[in-house]
Amino acid sequence: MPANGRKKGKDPVLVVIQLSGGNDFMNTVIPFTNGTYHDARPLVRIAEDKALPITDTLAFHPSAAPMRKLFQDGKLAVVQGIGYQNSSRSHFRAMDIMHTCEPNRIATEGWLAKVVRQFDPDGTNPLTAVNFGRGLPRALAAPGVTATSVGDLDNYGLLTPIQLAQQREEDLEVFRRMYTPAVGSGLVMDYLSQTGRDVIKGAEQLKEAPRAYRSTVEYASNPIAKSLRDVARVHTSGLGTRIFYTNHGGYDHHAQEVVTHARLLAELSGAISDFMQDLRDHSASDEVLILVFTEFGRRIKDNGSGTDHGSGGGAFLIGDRVAGGLYSEYPSLEPSQWLNGEDLRHTFDFRGVYGTILDQWLGVDSEPIVGGKFEQLKPFTSTLVA
Question: Any idea of the CA torsion for 355, 357, 360, 363, to the nearest 10 degrees?
């Protein structure tokens, strides 16, 4: 489907929330009545009477009540069992695969950067894609594609051209340190030598976003809430941003999972709920889709303090045009079906999730971006594409 195959009116917008570290899907959407789940996780399991049921067999973590409410309201789709063949347990490599759709080779371009190139082939708007956080995610990186990274929206528009250039160099250095272990120094340096650096104009435009924004929603003070508030401020300013990217870190729960995971899910679900309310208050939710993803799931058994890297994770699609519910199949907890004797098997290829978003939501041909044709979902009540 061509990128310009849209109805008149608002353009569809994608907000990506990356859960870095490998979110424990089994303790997020919990098979709370399953005996194998409770036996395999004597330390980190969520007690049946504490979980928040959404079906007879599945429940949300008790700290994710706002997400459960979105599910019950029909605005949140749970995509179960996401993964790919021969999944990697390396943070660097697994996240790189999720960012580039290339499980079998090192890629040079991020999947969302390819979308930016289609939306803005001449690079006229440096705010077509905006990342909130330091460094640039690989998903938005490709030679010649400009994506703006903002650490602090309130201060960003106040920076001088020299300070902006310094911040850009710092972001690129973060990118270099982050991705060299996964893809090698040659590819990273090639990208850094060619990436678009036209951020001065973007900074001038972003100055207006905090000034024009008014809201009665009181976001929490944690990083993901602040980032989503910044997304709301930029989106409601009408600056033409089509892709927003955010990161919520800390999900690598090898130890102390019970307390930490509860805190993170409370932060995440509260921030998303506030963000959706903020958009609705501004009549700006109809065109927004949220994708929440992570690089892999965790192993079925706990390790005595947390859980180790695994597979068969999950993702969430959230928005007012989403047909909420359960999609794909929850991976089997039958021990004979465990991958490598310890992991959940994936039941849906992550590239099918991306393809669903590209073809059905953004109106972009998915095959050259995800590297082929993959089974898709039908998670929307309607979209803005023709």
Answer: -90
Q: Grade residue 183 by pLDDT with cuts at 50, 70 and 90.
A: low
Q: Which domain holds residue 167?
A: 13-370
Task: Say what the pTM is.
Answer: 0.91
The answer to whether residue 139 is domain-embedded is yes
In sequence order, the β-bridge partners of residue 245 are: 16, 131
Nearest to 296 by CA among 354, 343, 351: 343
Residue 290: φ, ψ to 5°: -105, 130
CATH number, position 264? 3.40.720
Give the model confidence (pLDDT) of 336-359 as tens digits: 999 989 999 999 999 999 999 999
In a domain, 377, yes or no: no
Pair 174, 134: CB distance under 8 Å = yes
Greatest mean pLDDT among 3-17, 94-108, 185-199, 319-333 lies in: 319-333
Hey, is 59 helix, strand or coil? strand
What is the pairing mode between strands 243-248 and 129-132?
A: parallel
Q: Are 253 and 21 in contact (CB under 8 A)?
A: yes
| The two structure tokens encoding residue 380 | 């929307």
Strands 76-83 and 325-327: parallel
Q: What is the spatial distance between Cα 179 and Cα 93, in angstroms, rounded to a whole number?
A: 9
Tokens of 298: 């965790």
The C-alpha atoms of residue 182 and residue 96 are separated, in whole angstroms, by 7
Per DSSP, the three-state class of 79 is strand
In tens, the pLDDT along 130-160 reads: 999 877 788 998 878 888 888 778 776 655 6
Q: Retrieve residue 37's tokens.
A: 């789940």
Residue 375 lies in a domain: no
The number of folded domains in the chain is 1
* Closest-CA residue to 326 (of 367, 378, 281): 378
Per cent of the chain over pLDDT 90 is 71
Q: Are strands 129-132 and 148-150 parallel, antiparallel or unpaired?
A: parallel
Q: What is the pLDDT of residues 100-112, one digit of tens each?
A: 999 888 887 899 9
In a domain? residue 347: yes
Region 251-273 average pLDDT? 97
